[in-house]
User: Fold this.
Amino acid sequence: MADQLALGFADRHAGQEANLAAAVAVNRDYRAAAEAVLAELVREGRPFTAEDVRKAVPKDVEPHSPNVLPSVLGTWAARRLIVPCGEYRSRRRSRRASRNRVWIGNCDAAGEQRMHKSQ
Assistant:
């Protein structure tokens, strides 16, 4: 019998990938904008939240779905480019005080990426 947790993670990752694929369709710039902001926050080396990313994306760039940013963060976390370093309660009413993570760039993964790019 398949491990239910492994199946759950596989379903989550499949959903993230489908959501991100839709985010790059024609006139869908939110994913690229969010990833550019995320890359800058990782380079800065300080903790950040999804709210920090959301606030830094240009106001005229709208996601096709509210799940684009969580999918981007989930994909970067799965690739170990970012790692959790804390939690907080969202202050956005639409999030209903949900628990969210504070993230920081993974120094080890950043170093590995630089090594691969320079080779």
